[in-house]
């Protein structure tokens, strides 16, 4: 697998985890607003997926910084 494909995969997984986590969080808030007890699944999904998404974004940023540091354009 090329480095570009790995970076794209990391970003896609991070975005998907963030979207699913955010939708689950909105579901918890909606259920609480309506007076229902939020389900356990909707409660745990944001607690697990949002930190994973932020960690994956951090990994993608570090990989981009390291790749940029390795490529020297010229002497300034």
From TrEMBL:
Residues that span the membrane, as ranges: 12-33, 45-66
Designated name of the protein: Uncharacterized protein
Swiss-Prot/TrEMBL keywords: Membrane, Transmembrane, Transmembrane helix
Keyword Transmembrane helix attributed: yes
Source species, domain of life: Bacteria
Keyword Transmembrane helix (UniProt): yes
